[in-house]
Amino acid sequence: MTFVRFLGGLKTIGGNIVEISQGNSRIITDFGLTQQSSQADVKTLLAKHDLPAVPELFLPQINKEEYVHQAIFISHLHLDHTAALEYLKKNIPVYMSRASYELYQQLVKSGLATNLKLDFQVFDPEVPVKIGNLTVTGFASDHDIVGISSLLISDGKHNFAHSGDIRLFGDHYDEVEKWTKKFNSLHLDLFLLEGTSFSFPDDKAGQLEQLQPEVNREVECGQRFALALKSLTAVPVVNLYPRNIERLVRFQKLALANQRPIVWEPAFARLLKHYLPAETIFTQTAGITGTTVVTWKQINAAPQEYAVQNSFTNLKQLVKLNKFAYLHADGGPLGDYDPDYLQLKAFLVGQNATFQRIGTSGHASKRELVKVAEMVRAQKTVIWHSFEPQLAEAALEANGLVTFLPELNHKYLFK
Ligand SMILES: [Zn+2]
Ligand SMILES: [Zn+2]
């Protein structure tokens, strides 16, 4: 008998956690929080359902040895999928893809992530990992972060899968096509599909946009950046998310090709040097092996020869530039719901800087989500990681798919 228990993320974007258990074996996939909490008291966080209802993993005084074999599997390194790891007290293995672990180590080295003392383990794509009675297989996928995996969990009789966060038509559509075909062939008992794009009640679920498979949105994003590099007389300042390594690499290469190299913050320069060891990397301060320093004075003297990368935490540094144009490429803050975003906009007005959004989402559109569900065609599709999962449910059912909206912390039995 296998049980499936949803521990979070049923009506929120992120924090989606599921537990699959059989006898003495248990898998938990993803371990995020919907928001970074300043409240460090575990008991309060558990009571508020901010942490998943597995107190035995957070409170060392609870000595419940129900599971001989157990592990946490992480689909990708976004905080809404990992932030609860910071509270983990029980010494159980935490698995992630090899590429995710490489990213994690580099983020720690660059000072961009906390060094958690956990039992990290890696998996390779399509290589099953046995945890007692259960088997987990990761599949490479497409999202706006390296290492993203879709996860298949099997008890030998039932198959459950977690899509991870997903988009179609980024750089890795072929990977998505591959795992959807595999999942389809298994006739999954449950397919847990992220539903970020179905999150706003005024959207009409019936009105789905057209698919645009011919467009690679990451390439388009790069094209917008290249156009800015060619046309701007002011210094282009770009705000990027460090965990989106592929975009950092793309922008670095585009900037070099357009003879307007990016001058990176030291932490980003260190990170990029790991992924592009042979490339010339320009940075703002000395001390990083293999990088070349460009000062603010040099940039002001030749504004058409450089671009600058800036993170919100270092926003005030931009007063050193005589004239700049701000290009938002999905580094934080991301939107109006974040008070920092308003602060950013106000700062730019004060500096007479133009503002342009050039980024692209890591999430599939509504039409694309329906397409993924159709490609997999599980016995039941669960939509989570969404503010309005019932909108997705309606769209999926209208397309002949069977859906299921589970209840939080309820144990569903699969005989
Ligand atoms: Zn997410
Ligand atoms: Zn994500």
From TrEMBL:
Start and end residues of each Metallo-beta-lactamase domain: 14-223
Matches recorded under InterPro entries: Metallo-B-lactamas (IPR001279), RibonucZ/Hydroxyglut_hydro (IPR036866), RNase_J_2 (IPR042173)
An MF annotation (GO) of this entry: exonuclease activity
Keywords: Exonuclease, Hydrolase, Nuclease, RNA-binding
Gene3D superfamilies on file: Metallo-hydrolase/oxidoreductase, Ribonuclease Z/Hydroxyacylglutathione hydrolase-like
Protein name: Exonuclease of the beta-lactamase fold protein
Protein's organism: Liquorilactobacillus ghanensis DSM 18630
